[in-house]
Amino acid sequence: MNEVLSTAQMGEADRLAIAAGTPGSELMDKAGRAVADVVARRHKAGERVLALCGPGNNGGDGFVAARVLAGRGFRVRVALLGAREALRGDAAGAAALWSGAVEPASAADPAECDVIVDALFGAGLARDLDGEALALVERVNASGVPVVAVDVPSGVDGNTGAVRRAAIRAAETVTFFRPKPGHLLLPGRLRCGPVRIADIGIPDAVLATIRPACWANGTRLWRPAFRAPAPEGHKYGRGHALVLSGGAEGAGAARLAARGALRIGAGLVTIATPSDALALHAGRPDAVMLRRSDGPAGLAALLADRRRNAWVVGPAAGVGERTRELVAAALASGAHGVLDADALTSFEGASAELARALAARPGGAGQAIVLTPHEGEFGRLFKDSPPVASAGSKLERARAAAASLGAVVVLKGPDTVIAAPDGRAAINANGTPFLATAGSGDVLSGIVAGLLAQSVPAFEAACAGVWFHAEAGCAVGPGLIADDLPDALPKVLKAYFAEAGT
Ligand SMILES: NC(=O)C1=CN([C@@H]2O[C@H](COP(=O)(O)OP(=O)(O)OC[C@H]3O[C@@H](n4cnc5c(N)ncnc54)[C@H](O)[C@@H]3O)[C@@H](O)[C@H]2O)[C@@H](O)CC1
Ligand SMILES: Nc1ncnc2c1ncn2[C@@H]1O[C@H](COP(=O)(O)OP(=O)(O)O)[C@@H](O)[C@H]1O
Ligand SMILES: [K+]
Question: Considering the entire predicted model, what is its pTM?
Answer without folding.
Answer: 0.97
